[in-house]
Amino acid sequence: MMDAAVACFARQGYQAASMDEIAELAGVSKPLVYLYLHSKEELFTACIRREARALLEAVADAVGDTDAPPDERLWAGLLAFFGHAADRPDAWAVLSRHARTQGEPFATEAARMREEIAGFVTGLIGEAARAAHGPVAIGERDVAALAQALVGSAESLATWANETPGATAREAAATLMDFAWSGLGNLMKNERWSPR
Asked: Which is nearest to 168 in space by CA: 89, 82, 84?
C-alpha cells in the first residue's frame, strides 16, 4: 500500500493523487486504505517519513566507518545518497519535490530529513578541518554553512541525475566530490576566495 502511494504521489503530486487510484494500484479496497491511514494527509506524511528514514539509514550506514578519513566517508555518503535517489526515483520525487511544495506538515518532515543529513556533513567537514589543522581553522558557522551548501547541491544534482538519461549515481557523486572537496581543500589551507 505504501509503495503504491509513493508511486502515485511521485507521478501525480499530492493534490492530484486520489485514494481510489492508490487503492487500485495497491490491489486493495479504498476502505482498507482508510482503515490503516485515516486520510490522504496521513498517508502522504507516512510516505515521507518512511522514505526519509530509508534515505537517512542508507547515508548513515555508508558514513559509519569512523576510522576512515573524512574524504572517504564523505565519498561513501555521497555514493549512498545518489545511489538511493537513483534506485528509488519515486521516493526521491516525493521527498525532494512534492513534500516541500505542499506546505505544512509535509515541508517540516522534509526539513527534518535535510537537517539530519546536514548534520552528518557538518561532522565530516569539521573532522576534515581538525585533521588538516589540529584546532579547527575555519569557524563552526562556516562549517555549518558549507554543509548546507553541499546538501543543497546534492539534492539538486540528484534530481538532475534522475532526469538526465545516462547519468549515474557514481558520476553525480564524483562531480559533487570534485566540486566540494577541491574547494574544501583550499579552505583547509586557509586559501579563501575574495572579490577583487
From this structure: 82
Helices (H), the chain: 2-16, 19-26, 30-36, 40-63, 70-87, 89-93, 99-101, 106-133, 140-163, 169-188
* pLDDT tens digit sequence for 53-92: 999 999 999 988 778 887 788 889 999 999 999 999 999 9
pLDDT bin (cut points 50, 70, 90) of residue 185 is low
Q: Which residue pairs, CB below 8 angstroms and at least 24 apart, start in 48-54?
A: 48/94, 48/95, 48/99, 48/106, 48/109, 48/110, 49/109, 50/2, 50/6, 51/6, 51/88, 51/91, 51/94, 51/95, 52/95, 52/109, 52/110, 52/112, 52/113, 54/84, 54/88, 54/91
* Nearest alpha carbon to residue 10 among 94, 92, 99: 94
165's enclosing H/E stretch is: none
Query: What would the grid cell of residue 83 be?
Result: 545511489
d(CA 67, CA 69): 7
Quote the CA–CA distance of 77 and 147 in Å, as a whole number.
13
